[in-house]
Amino acid sequence: MRVTGTGHASMRIDTAAGSILCDPWVNPAYFASWFPFPDNSQLDWETLGDVDYLYVSHLHRDHFDAAHLRRFISKKATVLLPEYPTSELEDELREVGFTRFIRTKTNEVTELDGGLKVLIQALTSPTDGPIGDSSLWVEYDGVRLLNQNDARPTDLTMFAELGHVHAHLLQFSGAIWYPMVYELPNAAKTAFGKQKRERQYDRTWRYIDDLKASHVFPIAGPPCFLDDELWQFNDIHGDEGNIFPDQSDFLREYAKVGGSNAIVLLPGTVTELTADGGARTEHPVADLDEFFANKEQHLREYQERQRPVIEAAKQSWRHPEVDVLKEMKRRIEPLLEESVYLAKGVGGPVRFDLVGYDGESIESVVVDFPGKQVRPYADEKVRYRFRTERALIEQLLHSGEVDWVNSLFLSCRFSAARIGQYNEFVYAFFKCLSEERLQYAEGWYAEQKPDAEDIKLGDWIVQRRCPHLKADLTRFGIVEGNQLTCQLHGWRFDLPSGRCLTSVGHEVRARRAGTPAPAEAEPAPADPAAG
């Protein structure tokens, strides 16, 4: 099996039974803020795109690049489609020209021609990617590969049970806007960023230890930021709170925990894998260390090549003909009326401060979740506030974008402030600005059941599954004193009270070991007047 790095989470997998191209991304994403690092635009995409199969893990725009797919990837390729609850991924792939699909069943092996086997595990929580994320397992002639990209399954046991994995490709770097965009003192922002960077690595080490593959490939990040306005987000400034470490940093940190089996995939790197665990790698650069030592120079040259692209994108965002308040009311108010779980979860008004073309004037719009309306700001207290350019909201409304998380928020072209804890329902709602997405998210939250199984962690008896996204706490739970941390997403809980310290709601069931479980409540006596 031959693996060719094609940038970010993208790779081409070649076997004698066929080739698979995964997540090809070249063009800037998220309002021209994210670019692949290193630059992959100069690869021979005509040749790379002539493949038998295409796998797009999910609809995040650093994985689904519509323009690139339309221009360079052979429409004869058969798409390996994850089993998602909505048809959006298939619809968008058909829109760019693909007509051949294999609809896989999650966690089931699919046998393709010539002995090539694949399995796609689809994650379907409303908080997984844009309504879904997935991992691809591939086997041919005794060689097995897991492309986990940036999916976060609760555990990797199922993949390990299919046989020893020779190549494990997974995310290690940040892919979020926190804490950089928050209006915080620099010292606090650095402290929170350092904590997040450490959590990212802790999660990565846990996945690597679970699978115990022959070789580990750090992929799916970091992006780089070539707009002057966002340049500070690149990890070249010696900031220990930067959440976007690169592959060379991964190698250093991995070595500290005893890791010695990592292989870096630059665009153009080729690794040949064999069933006995062997791996022969050739890089497109003579010296890997020297390449990363000259990272800033690479980025500056890349920036100059892409500057016209960024400027052209910025010119396209303004739509003064869009009445923002009127259009937000038209788009969002019907969804607020239908929302039960998300609206209750948000629990209050969310304010958008829109900065005008002059860079000074501000129009403030409130999405009032309890009141089920979009209206002008009325000087009330809000727990969440976002500040961004009016032009960006105009573009979202003009284009009919249904996922403001997978556009505005990931762009980092905004600032945010909040009172109190993180609230996942705010972002879940703005990811679901369509009837299909909202109904799915509401149904998913409605179907969540209490977790009845308990486990022992340290001196505590706690429920086995994390209240956040059902991660197995036997694998991801760490107890320190009276506090539980789920390392999958870094959520923390106060054990004596059960209170979540990271977000509103999501209480955990816990008691000290040796104390009896609370008795189940007796059913209430029947009301003789009822019926």
From TrEMBL:
Residues 462-531 form the Rieske domain. The keyword Manganese does not apply. Pfam families: Rieske (PF00355), SCP2_Rv3818 (PF25451). SUPFAM superfamilies: ISP domain, Metallo-hydrolase/oxidoreductase. Residues 513-531 have a biased composition (Low complexity). PROSITE patterns: RIESKE. Signal peptide: none annotated. Keywords: 2Fe-2S, Iron, Iron-sulfur, Metal-binding. The keyword DNA damage does not apply. Residues 511-531 are annotated as: Disordered. InterPro entries: RibonucZ/Hydroxyglut_hydro, Rieske_2Fe-2S, Rieske_2Fe-2S_sf, SCP2_Rv3818. It comes from the Bacteria. This is Rieske 2Fe-2S domain-containing protein. It comes from Polymorphospora lycopeni.
